[in-house]
Amino acid sequence: MKAFLKNYRQAPRKVRLVAGLVRGKNVNEAIAELDFLAKRAGLPIKKLLLSAVANAKVMGIEKENLFIKELRVDKGITMKRMMPAAMGSGHRINKRTSHLNLLLAERVIPVKKTKIKK
Q: Could you write out the DSSP letters of every residue in 12-69?
């Protein structure tokens, strides 16, 4: 189950901090952590995660069995802007963007077999 977000207007370096927190976690744990996170990238990653869960439901996989197998944050386009500076010059401002790729996998919980004593 995949979901992706392209050209998210925040620097990849900042988004990777949030991605590292939820990578490898169960979906329910990740949603709970993103709800109370004081980072701007928390909301878009949560929306991306819920989108991937919806894609999994279409395929018939339950939410409780899913975990975040991969959450990759890549560099997107960089918008170049100018900031006026002293003596008629200007400095370049780079407005960076991010591409997010989310991959969910199913974690199968083994069922314990009990022996029946006679």
A: HHHHHHHHHHHTTSBHHHHHHHHHT--STTHHHHHHHHHHHHHHHHHTT--GGGEEEE
How many domains does one find in the chain?
A: 1
Domain that holds residue 54: 2-106
Q: Which two tokens stand for residue 20?
A: 């590292």
Q: What is the dihedral of CA 109, 20, 79, 92, to 10 degrees?
A: 180
Helices 42-58 and 27-35, packing angle to 10 deg? 150
Q: What is the pLDDT of residues 53-99, one digit of tens each?
A: 999 999 999 999 999 999 999 999 999 999 999 999 999 999 999 99
Residue 115 resides in a domain: no
Token duo for residue 107 = 């974690």
Asked if 3 and 30 count as a contact pair (C-beta separation under 8 A), the reply is no
In this prediction the pTM is 0.86
**Distances in whole angstroms, Cα of residue 64 to Cα of each of 12, 33, 67, 83, 87:** 29, 16, 8, 49, 61
56 CB-contact burial (10 Å; exposed 0-12 / middle 13-18 / buried 19+): buried
